[in-house]
Amino acid sequence: MTRRRKTKLKRELIDFTFILPALVIFIYIIIVPLFAGIRYTFTDWNGMAREIHFVGLKNYITVFSDQDLLKPIRNTAIYTVLTTLIINVLGLALAMMVTKEFRGVNIIKSIVFIPLVVSLVLVSYMWMYIYSDLFGYLGLSSPLTKGNTVMLGICAMAIWKEAGLAMMIYLAALKNVPQDFYEAATIDGAGFWAKFRNITIPMIAPAFTYCIPYWIAGGLRMYDYSYVATGGGPNHNSESMAYYIYEYLFPYNKVGYGQTVAMIYLVFCLILSHYVTKALRKREIEM
Amino acid sequence: MIHNTRYKIEKTIRIVILWIVAGISLAPFYVMICYAFKSKEEFTKTGLAFPTSVNLQNFADAFHLKNYINSIVNSAVVSVFVVLTIVICCSSSAYIITRKNNRFYNFIYYFFQMVILIPFQSIMFPLYQELSRAHFLNTLFGVILAELGVYMGYYVFLYAGFVKSVPVALEEAAEIDGCNRYQVYRKIVFPLLKPITMTVIVLCFLASWNDFFLPLILIQKDSMKTLPLMQFFFFGEYSSNVNLAFAASMIALIPPTVIYFCAQKYIVAGMTAGAVKT
Fold first, then answer.
1. Between chains, do B122 and A265 touch, taking CB under 8 Å as contact?
2. Do residues B97 and B164 lie in contact, with contact meaning Cβ atoms separated by under 8 Å?
3. A81 touches chain B (CB under 8 A)
4. CA distance A86 to chain B (A)
């Protein structure tokens, strides 16, 4: 009996080694800092000083009366909603257009995907010069220089870069839909929209539960465009939440306050992620 | 007959739209090429007109930029280590999570998944402090470690979706033949994961090669900087001669483009069986 238990324990340990390296790195890089961050929120630490003053809940009270937060919240919301919506709609539309074979279809697929290999830094610079040079020829001013168009200018960069990835994922999903479903529907006299609503959408539902959270999460932590293309300007009109937090933690040296904003933002994202993860897992049970 | 002409018109419109989209996808590259292949003087004269002569001076000069070659090597080292570790650790984790499917492993999986949706900014300062105390700042090892932690959840998730589609029967047969878990994994499961592994290699390499944020906070020393940091520095430093900066950036596009084209045919296959299967 004890011998059997011993071999069983040994097998469990061997199984555990499969996940051990990932788990160790994960705990060291994600979990430990996650909890270490909490105590900074009760201080006015600047990130360097040896002594740390505890200020109780002062930071939390400041956050809820911080008028400067309104713009980053608005900008992040605009960016997340616009990019998630347009990238997914465009990606699905393109995927549906390239499912039918024709000459050059593979070239088009490759071309539409290719912006994904460009770094966000280079994307920002390419588009800065498009906005200044190409728009200049057309007599237009760069959208990045005006407060009310700057977020649209940034969204355009993101859509250009990532629509190809969405296309690839939806294309993969569409390939799983059996063709006879469409044929049967055509015989029954169903038009394009009826087939789209009743066959395509339900059949590719897993792709939605994959893509939508992916781009929401990407939108919520958008940082690079704000930093590289506009520096948060003009007049804070392109500051994202992630950029706002970064500014307090590093250049401004206000770690206590920055970390408080970061933790509250984290809780917000966790609540959102709870519902998203639930949707993901629900789908897995069905598999 | 009418149906047939209508179908033809629809098809033509579809193809025209697709080529317009492809044109928009390529337009920004055209702007980059114009800058990279023209000297500063030529650019002020001809602007975005098609480059009439092939001028490689900018590319030659790019290699003489301080720390440029260093940054290519740094990026290559980081990306290769990150991709290899992610492939090994995430495929084995996803395998054991899926096959055990008990509370303990699902609990871990739940945490992995949640991190996909957490904003990195909320752990960034404590992580910076932690790595600073361990003297990992300004080292490639620190960047590799941080990227691994941040990326891991997503790739375990991608792998887990695919492992579910791999039949267990083969593994059971191998176990009866006396293979232990390691052998089963190495000889049977891992080879079957090839499509998703190719997808992961492409996506992970792109993420790591292009990552700007982690190196930005973890590396201050110029000789340790990775390519995106260098690009940022070049465009700031040579704002009067962006032609040079664009040429330097264009060279940096070669490795990810090559990897993408080599693995292209696997991407849809990996996604099909992995992330989006019903």
1. yes
2. no
3. no
4. 14
Contact B181, A14 (CB under 8 A): yes
The pair of three-digit structure tokens given for residue A154, joined into one six-digit string = 């940034």
Nearest alpha carbon to residue B208 among B248, B149, B262, B265: B149
B-chain residue closest to A23, CA distance: B108
Chains A, B: CB pairs < 8 Å: 281
Quick one: closest CA in B to A247, which residue? B121
Two tokens, residue B160: 């887990």
CA proximity to B201, closest of B164, B159, B229: B159
Taking the CA atoms of A145, A151, A155 and A158 in sequence, report the sign of the dihedral they define: positive
Residue type, B40: K
- SS3 assignment for A45-94: CCCCCCCCCECCCHHHHHHCCCHHHHHHHHHHHHHHHHHHHHHHHHHHHH
Residue identified by tokens 């039949």 is B167
Residues of A in contact with B85 (CB under 8 A): 21
- What is the amino acid identity at position B104? F
pTM to 2 decimal places: 0.91
User: Are residues A120 and B212, on separate chains, in Cβ contact within 8 Å?
Assistant: yes
**What stretch(es) of chain A map to CATH 1.10.3720.10?**
68-286
B267-270: long-range contacts at Cβ-Cβ below 8 A with a sequence spacing of 24 or more? B267/A168, B267/B198, B267/B199, B267/B202, B268/A168, B268/A171, B268/A172, B268/A175, B269/A172, B269/B195, B269/B198, B269/B199, B270/B162, B270/B195, B270/B196, B270/B197, B270/B198, B270/B199, B270/B200
User: d(Cα A87, Cα A91) in Å, to the nearest integer?
Assistant: 6
B46, B172 Cβ separation under 8 angstroms: no
Reported ipTM: the value is 0.89
Compute the nearest-CA separation of B247 from chain A (Å): 11
CB-based contact A266:A56 (threshold 8 Å):
no
pLDDT digits (tens, 9 = 90+) for B188-232: 899 999 889 998 999 999 999 999 999 999 999 989 999 999 989
The tens digit of pLDDT for each residue in A102-117 reads 888 889 998 999 999 9
Is residue A151 within 8 angstroms of chain B, CB to CB? Answer: no
Task: Say yes or no for a CB contact (<8 Å) between B125 and A206.
Answer: no
Q: Are A26 and B235 inside 8 Å of each other by CB?
A: no
The listed CATH number (2.60.20.10, 1.10.3720.10, 3.40.50.300, 1.20.210.10) that belongs to domain A68-286: 1.10.3720.10
Reading chain A (287 residues) residue by residue, the pLDDT tens digits are 577 888 888 888 988 999 999 999 999 999 999 999 898 889 888 877 777 788 888 888 888 888 889 999 999 999 999 999 999 999 999 999 998 888 888 899 989 999 999 999 999 999 998 898 888 788 788 888 888 899 999 999 999 999 999 999 899 889 888 888 888 998 888 888 898 988 888 888 888 888 888 898 899 999 889 999 998 878 889 999 999 999 999 888 888 999 999 999 999 988 887 787 677 557 544 54
Closest A-chain CA to B143? A29
Q: Which residues fall within 8 angstroms of residue B234, CB to CB, at 6 or more apart?
A: B65, B244, B245, B248, B249
